[in-house]
Recover the amino acids of this structure.
């Protein structure tokens, strides 16, 4: 099996944005280049694609029209959709929370998350670039409020080594372990933590005893977010810094717990939720309401009282409470006169759940995704790699740049957000990121959108539920090892994988979101490409082995003779990390061909260098690669083979030392077929022509040695 091209085969098809069915969006006058935005990234827990009211408008864009008998309103989110863009084909990284959050924060898909995949709840994400570090280093004040779940402690039974304060966030207020997200009055029995990096002596503190047990989690975290924004804007008068707020609500995850009081009237600076200090405690004003204790977990929003069962009333009320909080936050931005220059992203971590939750004090039964068609016109729920488990609600609003009323059908995925926010903040996209900036799509220039990668892998026992509106062949489908790749805009999906050569089902999810018509028999040429993509764009995950790990990654075919050496481009500048040069807006200062990996070419002292081409693997087998740079401060590098991470000598790298492709402290070889394999080497440094980069290998019959120049070539046709 050989790849047909050494370009990544996970490229998605370009699909235009629509202002109305069939009409490309027109950019408006307010899309002129604006200053770096403030950013609020809102992540909710287990809210299905079909739980977002605006996704049900203009149904013919969805590829399938269905009758939704029961519906509830999300007026603030609907307004946000009208005032910005709907991403109707946005995918989570995985159909469950921990791996989804890990990939979101790290900007990598699940084939590259090194610690958190599958169901490794509470394990600490690796020390790499995150949304927090990138935005902090771009000059932003950063805060994470709400649920974290990927920092250590909890079910990892280890120390907290990947907490928000250790991954780029100057401020944190919330819950650390994922199970605490089931407890919507968290201080009743769970720990609440705070970290203030702006304090003279920052401490990671458990403040559970300072929070009344009447504090409902959505209210608590929304009020804390409002107060943090107010405080940050005061300090910004001196610092001039914009802010990045990651606001992760536990709702509407089970348990199905509701507030004790109506949402306070008004909103913004003077109304709505407010932060209150009282009798040695600090909390949201609703926690101090006279009826807060008596009516705890009883309030149903009046619009939702009509539903015939308690579960439906509670699920819809939990989401409506988040909706009210979004309206309150936007009101605050307007009061502070920063609404125009603030980007708000709203999305969910995975498809809808059918769980009761772990809080024994507030049991109300399991959510039933069928009642509201929380999975939309698709099949699948949380833990399924069918569309209903992976496709999530997604809205983006930024009045200064994003034209109103757009609907995008362009596929995108969680790892694209790190690239997007880096682009908005005016800093390079890290080379480790698997994402592409979505700014062209968001700002009405979908024709300029770079194609991205859609990939996922997830392993869990169990089966797809047998809901009556699911297709017969989907009911009871074995989950097990699941894997998704997109090739030529089509989705490849395989479930219950026990053999790496198992065929993919192939679906046109743009026009067939229920995945009713398997195109595999009519597109046999795609099988080899999808199987190759499934191997060449991921690395083995050592804590949990898969059937893919030791399969040989196929070589590529190059039409015509390849020319000796690697192409190089040199960029002038000082870089905070190794960038993805493919997404750089500046042009290279010079370019040429080098016989082997070298960064010594003449040119600027402060430089970034990209080398691209092919490396010839002499024999089938397992290989380990090694890299070292010069010892000058700031020297870093990153290497990809095909689309996979090969060597990471970036964020934690000590210049001058040697690192390997093991990507950790355990042996993790790369399994390769003999032949040509595309390689991309990125380097940054400040030593000019004295810069140095050495690349070595060892493999079958090859002792550890520098890779000879004869192994490198490039496609002179530029393909």
């Amino acid at each position: 099996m050989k790849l047909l091209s050494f370009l990544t085969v996970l490229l998605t098809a370009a699909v235009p944005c629509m202002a109305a069915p069939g009409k490309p969006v027109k950019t408006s006058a307010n899309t002129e280049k604006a200053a770096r935005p403030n950013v609020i990234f809102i992540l909710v827990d287990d809210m299905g694609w079909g739980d977002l009211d605006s996704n049900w408008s203009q149904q013919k864009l969805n590829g399938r029209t269905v009758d939704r008998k029961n519906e509830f309103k999300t007026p603030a989110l609907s307004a946000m959709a009208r005032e910005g863009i709907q991403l109707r084909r946005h995918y989570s990284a995985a159909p469950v929370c921990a791996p989804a959050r890990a990939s979101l924060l790290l900007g990598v898909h699940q084939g590259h998350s090194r610690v958190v995949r599958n169901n490794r709840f509470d394990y600490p994400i690796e020390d790499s670039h995150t949304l927090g570090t990138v935005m902090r280093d771009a000059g932003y004040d950063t805060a994470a409020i709400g649920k974290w779940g990927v920092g250590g402690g909890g079910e990892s039974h280890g120390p907290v080594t990947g907490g928000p304060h250790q991954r780029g966030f100057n401020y944190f207020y919330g819950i650390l372990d994922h199970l605490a997200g089931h407890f919507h009055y968290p201080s009743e029995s769970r720990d609440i933590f705070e970290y203030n990096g702006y304090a003279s002596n920052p401490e990671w503190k458990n403040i559970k005893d300072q929070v009344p047990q009447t504090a409902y989690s959505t209210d608590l975290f929304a009020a804390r977010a409002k107060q943090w924004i107010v405080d940050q804007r005061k300090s910004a008068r001196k610092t001039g810094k914009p802010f990045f707020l990651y606001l992760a609500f536990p709702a509407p995850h089970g348990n199905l717990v509701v507030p004790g009081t109506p949402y306070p009237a008004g909103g913004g600076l003077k109304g709505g939720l407010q932060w209150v200090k009282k009798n040695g405690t600090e909390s949201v004003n609703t926690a101090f309401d006279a009826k807060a204790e008596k009516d705890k977990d009883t309030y149903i929003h009046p619009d939702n009282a009509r539903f015939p069962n308690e579960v439906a009333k509670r699920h819809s009320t939990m989401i409506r409470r988040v909706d009210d909080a979004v309206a309150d936050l936007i009101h605050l931005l307007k009061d502070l006169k920063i609404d125009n220059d603030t980007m708000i992203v709203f999305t969910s971590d995975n498809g809808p759940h059918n769980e009761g939750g772990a809080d024994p004090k507030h049991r109300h039964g399991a959510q039933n995704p069928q009642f509201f068609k929380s999975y939309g016109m698709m099949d699948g729920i949380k833990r399924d790699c069918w569309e209903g488990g992976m496709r999530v609600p997604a809205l983006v609003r930024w009045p200064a740049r994003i034209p109103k009323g757009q609907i995008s059908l362009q596929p995108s995925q969680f790892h694209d957000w790190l690239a997007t926010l880096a682009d908005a903040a005016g800093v390079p996209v890290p080379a480790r990121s698997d994402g592409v900036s979505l700014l062209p799509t968001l700002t009405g220039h979908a024709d300029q959108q770079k194609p991205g990668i859609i990939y996922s892998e997830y392993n869990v026992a169990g089966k797809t539920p047998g809901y009556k509106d699911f297709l017969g062949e989907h009911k009871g489908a074995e989950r097990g090892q699941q894997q998704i790749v997109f090739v030529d805009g089509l989705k490849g999906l395989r479930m219950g994988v026990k053999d790496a050569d198992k065929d993919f089902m192939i679906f046109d999810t743009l026009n067939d979101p229920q995945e009713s018509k398997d195109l595999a028999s009519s597109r046999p040429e795609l099988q080899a490409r999808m199987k190759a993509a499934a191997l060449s764009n991921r690395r083995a995950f050592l804590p949990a082995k898969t059937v893919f790990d030791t399969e040989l990654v196929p070589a590529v075919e190059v039409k015509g003779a390849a020319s000796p050496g690697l192409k190089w481009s040199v960029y002038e500048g000082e870089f905070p990390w190794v960038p993805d040069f493919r997404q750089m807006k500046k042009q290279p200062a010079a370019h040429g061909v080098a016989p082997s990996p070298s960064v010594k070419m003449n040119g600027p002292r402060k430089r970034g260098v990209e080398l691209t081409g092919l490396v010839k693997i002499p024999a089938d087998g397992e290989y380990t690669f090694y890299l070292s740079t010069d010892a000058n401060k700031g020297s870093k590098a990153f290497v990809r083979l095909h689309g996979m991470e090969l060597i990471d000598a970036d964020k934690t790298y000590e210049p001058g030392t040697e690192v390997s492709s093991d990507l950790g402290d355990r042996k993790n070889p790369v399994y390769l077929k003999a032949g040509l394999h595309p390689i991309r080497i990125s380097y940054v440094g400040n030593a000019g022509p004295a810069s140095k980069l050495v690349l070595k290998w060892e493999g079958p019959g090859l002792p550890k040695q520098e890779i000879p120049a004869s192994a490198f070539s490039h496609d002179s046709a530029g393909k």
Notes: The chain is about 15% helix and 25% strand. Residues 1-13, 20-25, 27-33 have pLDDT under 50 and may be disordered.
